[in-house]
Structure formats: structure tokens, C-alpha cells
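User: Can you model how zinc ion sits in this protein?
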Amino acid sequence: MIKHHISDKLLMAYSAGTLPEAFNLVVATHISLCDECRARLAGFDCVGGAVLDQRIAPAALSSGALSATLEKIKRGDGGGTAPDAPVTAAHGDTVLPGPLRSYVGGGLEQVQWRSIGGGVRQAILPTSRNASARLLHIPAGTAVPDHGHRGLELTLVLQGAFVDETDRFARGDVEIADEDMEHTPVAEAGADCICLAATDAPLKFRALLPRLAQPFFRI
Ligand code: ZN
Ligand code: ZN
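Assistant: Here's the modeled complex, given as C-alpha cells:
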């Protein structure tokens, strides 16, 4: 059972197409696992469509704004959009949902992991650079160094679970962290934790060593 969902604010921004690609990817991946958020998104899409109809109809008569808008949509202005979320995972590898598979070029076995120390591995995904997305592999029982945030951080669990100062997060759960939050996520014993994390600003690490390594790992 998914307990931690995408906020209204983020779902609306996703529906409006104003999120950076990395955040789009987290939202699309969560939605592919979560009926509840998929239904809420459909609501926002309806409202957005109605607003857009009212906005473009009069303008189109006078200035060709409709075709300009359609052209803009076709070009994908506004941060890039993750592919629409298929509802079911592909056969075989069930850890990576559909929206993620196209970024990785397949399943978990295709992921190009790199060690970032302490047993933690990451794979940076190709998105537009205004925010970054990465897969994290955290061995069971291991902690990610404690850190704060300069911007927004979305972390979606794909396998296993992690616990931090706020709660427990398992497959499908999203943690939304911002400037006000400092935490030390620890992967639960039992299974390695695999997450998809997106950030729009570098993290603030307390300890010196992770701070020194930050530029190399683009965290
Ligand atoms: Zn949800
Ligand atoms: Zn964090």
C-alpha cells in the first residue's frame, strides 16, 4: 500500500507541463504505480483543458495564437515531458516501471551504476539540466550521509524501503523534501533499497567528506 503521494501542487504543475524533466519523471513513475494519484491527475487534466479551451478560443480568431500554442506544445517548451506512464510494468524485470525503462534503456540489468562511496551506487539519468534525476542503490542497513536541501528533492522508492526522521518509505512512496528539511535516510535491513531521486539544487552535506565528493557525483 502506497502511503506517501505526490502533492496537489506538484500534480498540478505536472498537468500544466511546467515541471523540469527530472521531476516529471518521478511524477510519471509514481503515477504508473499509484491509482489514487492517476485519478487525481485526471481531475487536474480536465480542469487544465477547460481553462486552456477558454483561453485560446478568442485569441485564435484574431492572431493565430492557437497554432502558435500548438507549435509550442509540439516543440515541448516548458521543461520537457516524461513519456506517458504505462499502467503495467514490462515482463521480467518488475523493479523499474515503464516511464523509467526508456531512460535506462531497459530494466535494472541495463543500469550503469557508479560507486559514490559507503557502498552506495548511483546512475545519473539523461534529463534537461535544470534538475537532475538519478537512481540510487543503497545496500540494506546503510545510511546516506545526513544532508539538507537547497531546493526540492523528490525520492521515489522502487525496491526495499528506507526510514528517516520523518517516516518509513517503501515501494511507490515518494518523499518530498525542501529547504526546511534535514534528514538521514537509512535503507532497511533485509533488502537493498533502490530509489529514483530528483533534485533541482545541490544537497547540503554536514560531513566534510561527502561535501568534497559532491562536485564529482553531481549530487
Ligand atoms: Zn500516489
Ligand atoms: Zn534528502
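A couple of observations from the model: The CA atoms of residues 3 and 105 lie 29 Å apart. The helical segments are 8-16, 21-33, 35-63, 65-75, 98-104, 208-217.
User: Helpful, thanks.
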